[in-house]
């Protein structure tokens, strides 16, 4: 006689290594490069970490645009330090991705060939000094909301890289807030410039969290693996909650007339995000996509001699060590 148990799908037997991986995840422990991991976990981490690294590297461009035109020596020194921090973040993240078996060259090739994604936010122009304030306040603010939970990502090298990155992002966010605060306490033209920058960066900063949860193909699995700890929409809501009191202190208006707390839902009501714009930017058709990639390609070509010199130095050092041995 056939019983219901006979009809149930047969669960494939887990290997010892798979069991150990699942146990580590369940216990909230860290997976390290030496540990066995499912191929899909490894690939998904390479995907996310390399996209994140590319974002940091491309993210230097919109702000570097203002280094030569910063309004004072102090502002220039701060902005240069911030842009250098972004380069450092890119390097920690490329190193974390390399522990998963992909080379730096492969990742760079994917980026300059236009095959790799990087954050949509860096495909918008920075026409005024107030954009430096809005990027710091909104873009770095969104980055903190999204990245603090990543300090607890299940993959050790990623989580550890995120700890230092988040400390630096907090400083970045404060410096952006302070630029806007100073502008908002200035002349009517300065206040208008600050509000205009907030109007232009607000919606793209909400898009940084990714598509809505019901259109996010990677979220469920990434959350089950404890790479992501919160969904895209949860983090977007948390970000809005952080912005509202800060906008009051600044005296700027967030450009969404429908924005208000909904007690019943326990969430903010808001206007619809223009997801068509998001998809256009992801498809390479945002306001500055081609300019960003073109600049990255040129910088890569111009840096060829540095890579060659470093490789030659390493070869000579290795030869000298071999001779001593
Ligand atoms: N832009 O299933 P989903 C910074 C892609 S650096 C472009 O929800 P996931 C800073 C997504 O990759 C900021 N693409 O994906 C630097 C996926 O594509 P694939 C960068 C996006 O991974 C310098 C598809 O859409 N931060 O702050 O579960 C100066 C479906 O999405 C975007 C990070 O990278 C986007 N906005 O969640 C100043 C943080 N959103 O790969 C500041 C780390 C989604 O399937 N990354 N996509 O082809 C993450 O937390 C997650 O990867 C995301 C997306 C929340 C971004």
Description of the molecule:
The longest helix is centred in the middle third of the chain and has 29 residues, at 156-184. This protein starts with a helix and ends with a helix. The chain has 14 helices and two strands, in the order H-H-H-H-H-H-H-H-H-H-H-E-E-H-H-H. The chain is mostly helical and 325 residues long. Helix 5 (73-98) runs antiparallel to helix 8 (156-184) and helix 7 packs antiparallel against helix 11 (232-250). The chain has a two-stranded antiparallel ribbon. The protein has helices spanning 4-7, 16-26, 39-58, 60-64, 73-98, 104-112, 130-147, 156-184, 188-207, 219-224, 232-250, 275-285, 289-302, 304-324; strands at 260-262, 267-269. 66% of the residues lie in helices and 2% in strands. It is globular and about 65 Å long. The model has no long low-confidence stretch (mean pLDDT 96). Benzoyl coenzyme A binds at residues 47-48, 51-52, 55-56, 59, 86, 117, 119-120, 139-140, 143, 146-147, 207-211, 216-219, 222, 228, 232, 282.
Strand content: under 5%
- Largest sheet, described in full? 2 strands, antiparallel
Number of helices: 14
> Any idea what the shape is?
globular
Q: What structural class do the secondary elements suggest?
A: mainly alpha
With strands numbered from the N-terminus, the spatial order across the biggest sheet is: 1-2
């Amino acid at each position: 006689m056939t019983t219901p148990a006979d009809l149930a799908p047969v669960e494939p037997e887990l290997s010892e290594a798979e069991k150990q991986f699942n146990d580590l995840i369940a216990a909230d422990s860290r997976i390290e490069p030496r540990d066995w991991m499912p191929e899909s976990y490894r690939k998904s981490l390479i995907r996310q970490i390399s996209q994140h690294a590319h974002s940091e590297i491309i993210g230097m461009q919109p702000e570097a645009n203002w280094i030569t035109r910063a309004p004072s020596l102090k502002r220039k020194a701060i902005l240069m330090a911030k842009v250098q921090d972004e380069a450092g973040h890119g390097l920690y993240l490329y190193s974390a991705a390399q522990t998963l078996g992909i080379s730096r060259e492969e990742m760079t090739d994917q980026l300059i060939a236009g095959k790799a994604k990087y954050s949509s936010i860096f495909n918008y122009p920075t026409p005024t000094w107030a954009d430096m304030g809005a990027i710091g306040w909104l873009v770095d603010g969104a980055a903190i909301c999204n990245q603090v939970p990543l300090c607890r990502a299940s993959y050790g090298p990623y989580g550890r890289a995120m700890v230092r990155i988040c400390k630096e992002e907090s400083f970045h966010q404060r410096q952006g807030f302070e630029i806007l605060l100073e502008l908002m306490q200035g002349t009517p033209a300065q206040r208008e410039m600050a509000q205009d920058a907030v109007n232009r960066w607000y919606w793209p900063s909400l898009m940084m969290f990714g598509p809505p949860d019901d259109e996010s193909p990677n979220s469920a699995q990434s959350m089950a693996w404890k790479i992501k700890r919160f969904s895209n929409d949860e983090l977007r809501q948390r970000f809005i909650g952080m912005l509202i009191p800060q906008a009051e202190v600044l005296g700027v208006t967030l450009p969404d007339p429908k924005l208000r707390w909904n007690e019943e839902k326990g969430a903010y009501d808001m206007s619809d995000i223009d997801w068509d714009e998001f998809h256009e930017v992801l498809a390479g058709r945002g306001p500055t996509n081609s300019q960003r990639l073109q600049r990255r390609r040129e910088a890569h070509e111009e840096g060829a001699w540095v890579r060659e010199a470093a490789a030659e130095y390493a070869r000579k050092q290795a030869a000298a060590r071999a001779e001593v041995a």
